[in-house]
């Protein structure tokens, strides 16, 4: 089930509510990534504390480990991982698909070697739908082929047309399985505006509860990603959620919202946290920099997260240097909290019809650069 209520538009920016089987989410929304059923270094309680509304799991990874027979015992992913709010599952195979030597792609599906034990594995739209039905995720993604960003026009068109056939097969399998959740289609078309339109029109003819923008943040230059977002903004259907896969930096989130994106996921806030790269309103901080060794200030004076209200940069510098797990935990809490705060501020700004002002102020603050 998915009910979409559009509350307000401010340019292409949108403020909406998406009602799913495990609850309602307010958009624009950022989804922390929990590839193996865990958002790294975060407990479900930590996620509730930073107001996470929905998290992402990866079909491919969970299929391999722990495997469906385990998750089936718990009636799906929610009870297994102790998260009672919505979950979206994408393939996660995107990384695998890009490891081209690992895989063979045919009309039927994708064959690849298990990176765990070398077994031959086969993933088709039908199998992906079976896996996501066992996971019982609130939002299911069609199986597609993530076209490489540097594909030629001919290659990109061939690829998007196969993804449309896989979209059809995904939907049919999803319905045959009586899956009670919501299925999203994924737009491909590489960096070609005409192909992006062809892909979107094809998906709309098939009919999905939501539309994802795929094939971006796959190594293409940032201006190319932004050009595709500008091209897509006027085409995206108003009556359903728009999900930009795998994006992005704080600046990317703002640019995406300004161009009609409602949902985002990215490993950046969690991965960068573990590497000591911290996002703040006034720019980024590399906590491993010796300049922080004696600094008694919090990361960000204006931040209300647990890390900033209890600890200093000096302590976070120390924890990073000695490799303490607590360092990864506190840095992750801070980065995810920061991402949630800017999403909340954008929701409020759109409600108040002042998104452009908020966007200008955001960029001015962030322009102070990396500390
Ligand atoms: C069964 C669901 O299939 C997918 O998840 N397909 C898919 N996933 C993507 C994930 C991405 N992550 C990034 N950047 C980090 N870009 C992505 C693109 C896709 C995609 O085109 N297609
Ligand atoms: Zn903080």
From TrEMBL:
Active site: 90 (proton acceptor), 265 (nucleophile)
Pathway(s) the chain acts in: tRNA modification; tRNA-queuosine biosynthesis
Residues that, per the record, bind substrate: 90-94, 144, 188, 215
GO cellular component: cytosol
Cofactor(s) for this UniProt protein: Zn(2+)
Residues of the tRNA-guanine(15) transglycosylase-like domain: 11-367
GO annotation, biological process: tRNA queuosine(34) biosynthetic process
Enzyme Commission number: 2.4.2.29
Cofactor-binding details, from the entry: Binds 1 zinc ion per subunit.
Binding-site list for Zn(2+): 303, 305, 308, 334
Top-level taxon in the UniProt lineage: Bacteria
Catalytic activity: 7-aminomethyl-7-carbaguanine + guanosine(34) in tRNA = 7-aminomethyl-7-carbaguanosine(34) in tRNA + guanine
Gene3D superfamilies: Queuine tRNA-ribosyltransferase-like
Claim: tRNA processing is one of the keywords in the record: yes
Keywords in alphabetical order: Glycosyltransferase, Metal-binding, Queuosine biosynthesis, Transferase, tRNA processing, Zinc
Molecular-function GO terms, alphabetical: metal ion binding; tRNA-guanosine(34) queuine transglycosylase activity
Region annotated RNA binding, chain positions: 246-252, 270-274
Chain's role: Catalyzes the base-exchange of a guanine (G) residue with the queuine precursor 7-aminomethyl-7-deazaguanine (PreQ1) at position 34 (anticodon wobble position) in tRNAs with GU(N) anticodons (tRNA-Asp, -Asn, -His and -Tyr). Catalysis occurs through a double-displacement mechanism. The nucleophile active site attacks the C1' of nucleotide 34 to detach the guanine base from the RNA, forming a covalent enzyme-RNA intermediate. The proton acceptor active site deprotonates the incoming PreQ1, allowing a nucleophilic attack on the C1' of the ribose to form the product.
Entry similarity comment: Belongs to the queuine tRNA-ribosyltransferase family.
Oligomer status and interactors: Homodimer. Within each dimer, one monomer is responsible for RNA recognition and catalysis, while the other monomer binds to the replacement base PreQ1.
Protein known as: Queuine tRNA-ribosyltransferase
Source organism: Kingella oralis ATCC 51147
